[in-house]
Automatic annotation (TrEMBL):
Any single Pfam family the record assigns to this protein: FAD_binding_4
Any one of the GO BP annotations: organic acid metabolic process
GN (gene name): Dwil\GK10230
Entry protein name: D-2-hydroxyglutarate dehydrogenase, mitochondrial
EC number: 1.1.99.39
Family, similarity comment: Belongs to the FAD-binding oxidoreductase/transferase type 4 family.
Catalytic activity, as annotated: (R)-malate + A = oxaloacetate + AH2
Quaternary structure and partners: Homodimer.
Cofactor(s) recorded in Swiss-Prot or TrEMBL: FAD
Amino acid sequence: MRFQQLLQMRRYASATLRRSVTATTPTPATTTTTTTVRTMAGSGAAIPELTQITDNVQRGNYAELNDKDVAHFEKLLGKNHVLTEDLEGYNICFLKRIRGNSKLVLKPGNTEEVAAILRHCNERKLAVVPQGGNTGLVGGSVPICDEIVLSLQRLNKVLSVDEVTGIAVVESGCILENFDQRAREVGLTVPLDLGAKASCHIGGNVSTNAGGVRVVRYGNLHGSVLGVEAVLANGQVLDLMSNFKKDNTGYHMKHLFIGSEGTLGVITKLSMLCPHTSKSVNVAFIGLNSFDDVLKTFVSAKRNLGEILSSCELIDERALNTALEQFKFLNAPISGYPFYMLIETSGSNGDHDEEKINQFIGDGMEKGEILDGTVTGDPGKVQEIWKIREMVPLGLIEKSFCFKYDISLPLRDFYSIVDVMRERCGPLATVVCGYGHLGDSNLHLNVSCEEFNDAIYKKVEPFVYEYTSKLKGSISAEHGIGFLKKDYLHYSKDPVAINWMRDMKKMLDPNGILNPYKVLN
Ligand code: FAD
Ligand code: MLT
Ligand code: ZN
């Protein structure tokens, strides 16, 4: 038998995938799902010092919150939706790296309330940070000083899902997993999937232009989001909703809000094009000897799997081993290889898809590029394999401090930075590893150490940005700039472009109340 080493080969038509979700939810009661939800990332990490102090941040020229403001908001939203106590979960970022000192969290229930809040804040010059699921990894979703947290948690409804057009309209605070569940009820799926799906909000995803594991198939959110409703800093509601793929009426302003990380407006609603759920899903988890073989296998996947290729992820040995050490419940089908790839196909004809993926693996094994692996169409096993990939980021922060990078690099130079960084950090780092969205040229370089320390920080930054810039890569492929990368934006953006960003920010938010200290320095 040609694929003796493969452990499983089964075909399941009409497989309905329900991915197990692993993300931490840092804010209380944000999710109603049955998934593994912990209370705070990196249980080993201590509560950080206030970022304003550690990073010597000069507070902007904003007003101080007073009792009258609080009373105003209580009248507007009702007392239950105005929080002044137990705000830690809203003040600390997922990675426990950034900590603000907000004294107020507001939870509006509709667009009008968001508009009224911002109108008041703009008039009073009170700074605001929009917050979704608070799973962001660049410190964008938490206050830096004492900004008011505007939580979108209550805007959580899926307003419509149209089986015929494939268009869904959803409020921005809807948890991604819940949105996907609703879409699946009518045979559609949300074209975005990421490990934080049990906690992150679709509005947070759009605001960060989140990537995830299916960009190779569906492209990014600039393509899938058809329209947005956003509230500007002055409280004006900008209706850019559209239910059509094609709409060339004037400037395509919705794109300004996709990926602007809450600095230009607060997204309250959006429409999204959702593809039909695939009838047949197969996942292969394979072991390879070298990065050269990884590249050959990727080319082969594109060539031979073609239109059914729906994900192509890379995990290196250290990343996998760290996850396996931390989470004993994970079941790795193979071990002992320097590189692993997770390749997924999604199609509409089980026989055809199975034949294709088996052929692809058989060819790879014959050439000696694929050494071992497992392939499965069993929904439970598919889920188990995805769980391994999803736990990788959590493994690295479970007991350590982790410097995380999400960079775009040319594929030929994709992995070299991991080896270079390992050499640079030497024994200062406990783990230096790479994984990520190979199919999109997006590497997650991670450097773990016992706790944050300046010596290793200096080894890693700005080196990683210089290295990326020299290769004409991007210093942020998907997580955004937030607070952590704002001083490094120039490594990936031309000064003229940065000035245009500043001008746009001034035009849409002249008082600078929306998410200050983020993206632009
Ligand atoms: P938050 O973290 O709350 O906010 C992120 C930014 O968006 C902030 O600047 C905030 O101010 C702004 N914002 C939030 N909501 C709104 C709104 N309604 N209007 C305006 N601004 C808003 N990211 C990826 O891209 N790909 C991945 O594969 C991926 N995997 C992850 C896996 C794990 C385990 C974790 C913890 C994170 C992962 N992330 C990934 C990062 C994170 O989940 C994404 O950036 C996600 O899109 C953030 O959504 P959120 O609702 O948590 O937003
Ligand atoms: C991922 O792809 O797992 C996420 O972007 C999170 C990370 O970078 O660790
Ligand atoms: Zn990622």
